[in-house]
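Protocol check, entry for the methods section draft. Step 1: assemble the input record (protein sequence plus ligand SMILES). Step 2: submit for complex structure prediction. Step 3: store the structure tokens unaltered in the notebook. Ligand used here: fe (ii) ion. Step 1 record:
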Amino acid sequence: MEVFRIYTRSPLRNFTYILRNPETFQTLSIDPYDPNQIDSFLEKRGWNLDFILNTHEHADHTSGNEVLFQKYKPIVYCHPAGIGKIPHATHPIKKGDRILTSSDRYLEILDTPGHTFCHVCLLLVEQGKSKAIFTGDTLFNAGVGNCYRGGDPEILARTILEQIYPLENEIVLYPGHDYLESNLKFTLSLDPSNQYAIDTLKESDRLQKDVEFLTTTLGKEKKINTFLQCDRPSKDLLENLRKKSTLHVTKNDPKSVFVSLRSLRDHW
Ligand SMILES: [Fe+2]
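Step 3, stored output:
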């Protein structure tokens, strides 16, 4: 699959993605934000827009729908509970559905509630192997989405623990926002000797700001993202979490670690 990441320069640092299946020449936009930016990308290449998929209903993930729909008349997919909330969404997609399919590749839908209750993620599978995941506001580089605009931290904990933890380390992460730098600083506020986070922050500092972005894998995320360490928190992480959190944290209860982390991150 051809994957293009477009940085929107929005106040919330959104990413929009354009995917093109080289076998069918069909094109999909995930979370279109700025319709003019996407339109000029497509125009330059002479491409149509066959599909839109909104990972969830928040306006910063759907604001491009209206203008793009008028011009390209794409099929607009979303979680069944997003129908009626997301502009022009008519095609509900559920867990296990496949889109942008051809003989050797497709996007598989994961039903991932927690940030909101209309949230899906997309797993890119090629030649039978999971290659990348588009996570909207469920999983970010070194962090996860918040739950205070229609979500629930306990439900997000379950989604991350049950659906993201088992995925292979080689899978490339494509999140809905760029929060890498602030999230790494959050990691280091609780786990200051995390050398992977220190190195990744340095790596990110060397990139051209707002032009180049670090792309991580889930394997790397497991080292720098505290929310992916709830089943095996380091000594420092656990101690600092207990010191700073008002919630009860139990070492062998990953959900309690996750919910405490989410609550600390909300006020950090
Ligand atoms: Fe959101």
